[in-house]
Amino acid sequence: MAAYLTSRLLGTVPVILLISLLVFGLIHAAPGDPTLMLLGEETNAEAVARAREHWGLDRPLYVQYLKFLASTLAGDFGTSFKFGEPVSGVIRQRLPATVELALCSIVIAVLLAIPLGVWAGAKPNSWIDNLGTTFGLFGISMPSFWLAIMLILLLAGTLNILPTSGRSTYGVAGPEITGFYLIDSLLQRNAAAVWDALTHVFMPALALGVNMLGILMRVTRSAVLEVMNEEYVVTARSKGLAERAVIWRHAASNALIPVITVVGLELGTLLSGSIIVETVFAWPGSGSLLISALNARDYPLVTGLVMVYTAAFVLINLIIDALYAVVDPRIRY
């Protein structure tokens, strides 16, 4: 397996290079001069020239790209135009919030979608199948920004049981250790901070995870429905096993491959696709950071964020490939 994963990793190098070239070219081709956006329209030509020289924007584009590529290979994405700090440091401050939000969304989606999908697939055309199908279609069809607004109106505005925005209440969270508020609060055994973090993350995680919940439920249903008539399921039933054991031990476990694939792909999508939800809930993650970087034409920060998202996709796909062999021992690389 190690040789296979190594070859897969090497195969992603051209893809990453192509993505870096596309992102670098597109952000530089976008209208708007970062020097005017950051210095203001009333600045003078001398200040603009100094800024362009300082940021290296006066050099030919291919020179800028080669310099960006060389520094990226060394783990340095450059200095943010807007924040005046190393891009890697700015991303490191905001990325844990997005990862925490994406993981909470995954947990909500998996805990609801897989049991519902398994029972719907095991009992087609039953009331639970109809309920699961309706719920799945609702999740797939529901725009996350609309659901986010409705959740705020209902749970925060009308019922007043959850906070509308932010990641924590001021003064409740303890000192930062990992950047993940839930983990930090658990490590510090601060029950009030754990509850505070859960109440803040619930609504954005639900708004972000409902779409994945619908997709995952339908994929699970289809996978279980397909294996329910396999010979090993019929044999398990003929041996007198309880229906619950037949469904969960023999059918569900053999239908996990497509489910794992969808979870992995959706996790990558959630990392890079949480921009709208983060904006609605004022969640201080990398999605809202990307919006502010694009508005400011902060070239190093935009390219740095996209490269981090690309690396996350590659890593998640490698983990999925490794999990295939763990879930199904028949798979060999």
Structural account:
Helix 5 packs across helix 9. This protein has 15 helices and no strands. With 333 residues, it is mainly alpha-helical. The N and C termini lie close together (5 Å).
Q: Gyration radius, to the nearest Å? A: 24 Å
Strand elements, count: 0
Main β-sheet, in a few words?
A: none
N-to-C span: 5 Å
**General shape:** globular
Instruction: Tell me the strand percentage band.
Output: under 5%
Which structural traits does this protein have?
mainly alpha; 15 helices; about 325 residues; globular
How would you summarize the topology of this molecule?
Blueprint: H1 2-29, H2 34-39, H3 45-55, H4 61-73, H5 87-122, H6 127-141, H7 144-158, H8 181-187, H9 191-227, H10 231-238, H11 243-254, H12 256-273, H13 275-280, H14 286-295, H15 299-327
Helix pairs in contact: 1-15, 5-6, 5-9, 5-12, 5-15, 6-9, 7-9, 8-9, 9-11, 9-12, 10-11, 12-15, 14-15
Quick overview of this protein structure:
This protein has 333 residues and is mainly α. It is built from 15 helices and no strands.
